[in-house]
Amino acid sequence: MNEAIVVGVNDSPSSEAAMGWAMHRAAVLKQPVQLVHAVDDRWVYDAVGYNEWIRESGINFLAAAKDRAAKMEPTVNITTDLVSGGAGYALGKRSKKAAMVVIGSGHGWAGGSLTDRALQVAAVARCPVAVIGEHDMTHRKGIVVGVDGSEEATQAVAFAAAEADRQGQELTVLHAFLTPEPWVTRGVPHTNYFEVITEEERVVLAETVAGLADKYPDLVVHQVLDTHTRPAEALLAAGATAQLLVVGSRGRGSFKRLLLGSTAHAVLTKLPCPTIITRISAVKHSD
């Protein structure tokens, strides 16, 4: 079965950008697209048929969105779905049978649509989630993926490598971490402590990309180890000139109960470029 790319649509500029991005991807991969628009009428008092009015408005909005999408990529099969309730819940539910969920970034202010929609969807979706902003993509190139040695990061690399090979882009695999402050090493035996840690993380980076050369012989892969920058800051800087940024849903941090890791959360709140959060569902670790 050819799973659809599910696109959350509303009347924001970033939503329109997300629809365009999704339509282009669908045309290239020959996948159908489902446009989903949520009418959140949970807290609306149904006075004089007001609920019916906003539902009718939603139907008209989806019809217009479908027309615009069809003009973008006439070969793509498009369906629409008008749902009641929160957009985050609706898209999360549909992600179980979707190839990808695509959503606009919204606005970055506290409590804005980014917090209400993109972060919620990225946290609960069961498939990759692409968050698209209003970025000028002129002169941007390359795909960047963040790694930290976790299984989620390894899956993110696999996804990013396939994307880079398909698009003919170079792949940058970035592993960033801060070496301990000097006071942390007090009482530690006199060894080359920082070099030991750095070498261990260099091995983590090498193991993460192992096998890519055999699977994608024409793919150019750059390995970057940054020991002076926090992961989110490094990814934001690298993504500022990239065509695409790929991040795992969670890393190897201590808070495994969190649905969305702190690095992915930070990247989404300051979106540097089109960003895909991979494998949102938790990875089952074998005993």
Automatic annotation (TrEMBL):
Gene3D superfamilies xrefs:
HUPs
The family database entries (InterPro entries) matched by this protein are listed as:
Rossmann-like_a/b/a_fold, Universal_stress_UspA, UspA
Sorted alphabetically, the keyword list is: ATP-binding, Nucleotide-binding
Q: Report the domain of life of the source organism.
A: Bacteria
Give the matching Pfam families: Usp
Indicate the segments forming the UspA domain, all copies: 1-132, 141-279
- Fetch the SUPFAM superfamilies from UniProt: Adenine nucleotide alpha hydrolases-like
Q: Please give the family membership noted in the entry.
A: Belongs to the universal stress protein A family.
Q: What is this protein called?
A: Nucleotide-binding universal stress UspA family protein
From which organism does this entry originate?
Answer: Paenarthrobacter histidinolovorans
